[in-house]
Design a protein that fits this description.
The chain is an alpha/beta fold. The chain contains ten helices and ten strands. The chain has an eight-stranded mixed beta sheet, sandwiched between helices. Strands 7-8 form a two-stranded antiparallel ribbon.
Length: 269
């Protein structure tokens, strides 16, 4: 029997963090949000603030629970490898614990965090910005879900020729097929992939009312030269088991994409 069907509570933040605290990575409390600690995790290379690292985050929207569990389970399988790796690693396992607990997109202030990454006055975003100051990443990956989707899809924001999105999607599509729509949230897609370029600030002003998503803020401020920001989406009406598997496979692909820069790193799965 599928363990997710037997006893899994997708919005149990306390259990999520108990398991994260056992991971062999350095942990820091970034903030307290809605009575819950927001933690971040780094390996030793990440703490040295080297460039060309890997940034991973999940749970910025509380009603998207598969990413937070996939990220946890993936790290549990790879923790020894990643803790000892020379690949600088920074992880935000759940940026919106109040939303996760309440199964709501928004935080305790009824705000969408993924439109607030420009807001240094926000009690979470301000500390996040301070922590991120001076940090640069080869690859930044944000894990999400979409209520309206019928398949997986990926936004890709490259600052150079490094564009691993298509190869990563190919590794996930046998778990959940790709989104077939050619337009998703106003953006053109081809076989589940949208590669954006050009003036991101103009896009934010014209289509997002000046509110910066995490991925665009990372793209503008925290990518190493030639780096790439990815936002992966699974359909939240599909099986939780399959969604977790798809996100885990996506993370395998992300790690593999980093291998040319950090040859000693590979997936434990």
């Amino acid at each position: 029997m599928d363990p997710y069907l037997l006893n899994h509570r997708g919005h149990d933040y306390e259990t999520l963090m108990k398991r994260w605290r056992k991971i062999q990575l350095h942990q820091t409390e970034l903030s307290i949000e809605g009575g819950f600690p927001v933690l971040l995790f780094e390996n030793e290379a990440g703490r040295n603030r080297e460039e060309n690292g890997l940034y991973l985050s999940a749970g910025v929207h509380g009603d998207e629970c598969a990413p937070v569990w996939a990220l946890l389970e993936w790290i549990e399988k790879n923790s020894t490898l990643l803790s000892e790796s020379d690949l600088p690693l920074t992880i935000f396992p759940c940026l919106n614990p109040h939303g996760l607990t309440e199964n709501r997109r928004y935080d305790q202030r009824d705000q969408d965090l993924n439109r607030l990454f420009q807001d240094a006055a926000h009690s979470l975003i301000g500390p996040w910005q301070q922590f991120m100051e001076g940090r640069k990443f080869r690859l930044a990956a944000n894990l999400h879900e979409d209520y309206d989707s019928c398949g997986i899809y990926l936004y890709q924001l490259p600052s150079g020729k490094f564009q691993p999105g298509e190869q990563i999607l190919m590794g996930c599509q046998n778990i959940i097929p790709r989104e077939v729509r050619s337009i998703v949230d106003g953006s053109p897609f081809k076989n589940g992939l949208a590669t954006r370029s050009g003036d991101m600030r103009a896009l934010v002003e014209s289509r997002l009312d000046g509110g910066y998503p995490e991925a665009i803020w990372l793209y503008l401020h925290h990518l190493s030269e030639g780096g790439c920001a990815l936002t992966f989406e699974t359909p939240s009406e599909f099986s939780l088991t399959d969604r977790v598997k798809a996100h885990s496979r996506f993370l395998d692909g992300v790690l593999a994409a980093m291998a040319p820069q950090h040859g000693s790193t590979g997936s434990g799965q």
